[in-house]
Amino acid sequence: MLTVQGINVYYGAIHALKDLSINVKQGEIVTLIGANGAGKSTLLKTLSGLLKPKTGSIEFLDKSIVNQSVQAIVKEGLIHCPEGRRVFANMSVEENLELGAYLQDSSSLAADFQRVYNTFPRLLERKKQQAGTLSGGEQQMLAMGRAIMGHPKLLLLDEPSMGLAPLLVQDIFKIIKEVNDAGTTVLLVEQNAHQALKIADRAYVLETGRVVLEGDAKELADSDEIKMAYLGH
């Protein structure tokens, strides 16, 4: 579904991603783990068209997306739910969700709202409320719901559990699994490596812009190297 080959990405003179290659197959949850500054969020921004690689290739559904606009990439079904939630604070929950569907046929809007409200019942209770008045967990649900409104074939999730209370973290990971089970492929960036490896099929470990380990998520979770570096064992 997604094939990234040897991409090099720079922020000015800083070489952020170095000959990086990953792939994601349809139906998988693939997680990227690594320390802050490893290049995880940079990779997601590059996939969604916010950054352009200097060299290398990115193919999504057998089509190059390297020189496509962000809007064209969204239209293809690759949708990015960014770090920090980024909801429109002065707009209602419902208006935020509607923005997520701006490229979709309006005839499916009612069904799309229903799907999101079924997934996140709390958003239905607060649909007329301003997004800026929601709790952190509710804002994360809204950001994910807005992404779902765009009919993602591949959903890029950047740090969905960041700053959330432990009980809410459990809810968010349960919902990610449900979204995947309903047919959406997921590429997940997550500081909570323990939870991410629990729900993922495969994982890549990034260090200073390079992939240093990859493999089955359960096997990586059991490896002493990963336990020491990322799981606090």
From TrEMBL:
ABC transporter domain segment(s): 2-233
Keyword terms of this UniProt record: Amino-acid transport, ATP-binding, Nucleotide-binding, Transport
InterPro entries, alphabetized: AAA+_ATPase, ABC_branched_ATPase_LivF/BraG, ABC_transporter-like_ATP-bd, ABC_transporter-like_CS, BCAA_Transport_ATP-bd_LivF, P-loop_NTPase
SUPFAM superfamilies reported in the protein's UniProt record: P-loop containing nucleoside triphosphate hydrolases (SSF52540)
Any Pfam family: ABC_tran
SMART domains tied to this protein: AAA
GO molecular function: ATP binding
Family, similarity comment: Belongs to the ABC transporter superfamily.
Name listed for the protein in its UniProt record: ATP-binding cassette domain-containing protein
